[in-house]
Amino acid sequence: MKNKIIIYDDACPLCEWYTTAFIKYGLLDKDGRKPFSQIDQSIIAKIDLERACNEIPLVDMQTFEVLYGIDAMAEVLHNTFPFVKPIVKLSPVNWFLKKTYKLISYNRKGIVAKVPKVNSFTCAPSYNYNYKKYFIAFCFVIAILLMYGLFKKTFPICSDLVFGISGAMVLFSIFIQNKNVLEFIMQWQLQLMIICVMLIPAALLGQVSTLGALLFASIVAILFIKHIYHRILYLKYYFSIDK
Q1: The pairing of beta strand 4-8 with beta strand 57-60
Q2: Which residues pair with 7 in a beta bridge?
Q3: Are residues 165 and 206 in the same domain?
Q4: What local confidence, expressed as pLDDT, does residue 205 receive?
Q5: 109, 143, 173 — which closes off a domain?
Q6: What strands, in cross-sheet order, belong to the sheet with 66-68?
Q7: How many structural domains is the chain composed of?
Q8: How confident is residue 241, by pLDDT bands cut at 50, 70 and 90?
Q9: Model pLDDT for residues 165-184, shown as the tens digit of each residue
Q10: 106-109: which pairs have CB atoms within 8 A and are 24 or more residues apart?
Q11: Cα(148)–Cα(81) distance, rounded to whole angstroms?
Q12: Comparing C-alpha atoms, which of 1, 199, 167 is closest to residue 81?
């Protein structure tokens, strides 16, 4: 793709990964991406910075047309997969993809994050309470479906206990607007979902009782260690930003 640059959040490992993949597989030129921490003022002047923090921008360096989010992704994929853009333009598909994109984008700093470089532009997404709560509910539903589908017979008491605690957290999150509390609940639900996904191979091999006991016994430690890790590396810094 000639003369087009995608500007990515270099404090987001996920953003770094998929933009690197775009270049590796020829979807973008080798100079077809640039981190927010290194963009020129001439480019900054052409983009909507507030929107760019939430939806990755693709800039045409000849016309200075800017596409954001799902539209930018569809444009990148179009040359290799020409069927993508027509599908993305379908109203139901477009609505679903944009909602899914926002669900991930608004929560990316809670999923994966690292501290931005000193004195660099901070591409932190706006804090959206609704999408934070949607993500909490999504993780809870996936975790509980997996837990009751795969582990209920092996861990009936544990499954019910985790369901009760996690369900109470989800209900509580509906009524609060505290960033720190919501972040803790999100980390709890996210790690619970990850643990359940990790147990799928063991369940399929019939070894849930052996590996499952160890993993479930470690869940609390993993939850709190990762929560502290996020707090130290990024979240305290992020919450200090007026978004």
Answers
A1: antiparallel
A2: 34
A3: yes
A4: 64
A5: 109
A6: 33-35, 4-8, 57-60, 66-68
A7: 2
A8: very low
A9: 899 999 999 998 888 889 88
A10: 106/54, 106/131, 106/132, 106/135, 107/131, 107/132, 107/135, 107/186, 108/9, 108/12, 108/14, 108/15, 109/12, 109/234, 109/235, 109/238
A11: 39
A12: 1
Q: What global pTM score does this model have?
A: 0.80
For 48-67, b/e burial (b = at least 16 CB within 10 A) is eeeebbbbbbbbbeeeeebb
- Chain-centroid distance, C-alpha 176: 22
Residue 227 lies in a domain: yes
**Domain with 195 in it:** 129-239
pLDDT in tens, 88-104: 999 999 999 999 999 99
User: d(Cα 94, Cα 60) in Å, to the nearest integer?
Assistant: 22
Q: What is the rounded distance in angstroms from the CA atom of residue 200 to the CA atom of residue 36?
A: 38
Q: pLDDT at position 236, please?
A: 53
Same domain, 140 and 93: no
What is residue 208's predicted lDDT score, i.e. its pLDDT? 56
pLDDT tens digits, one per residue of 112-154: 766 666 555 667 788 899 999 999 999 999 988 888 877 666 6
Four-residue CA torsion sign, 28, 32, 36, 41: negative
**Radius of gyration, alpha carbons of the chain:** 20
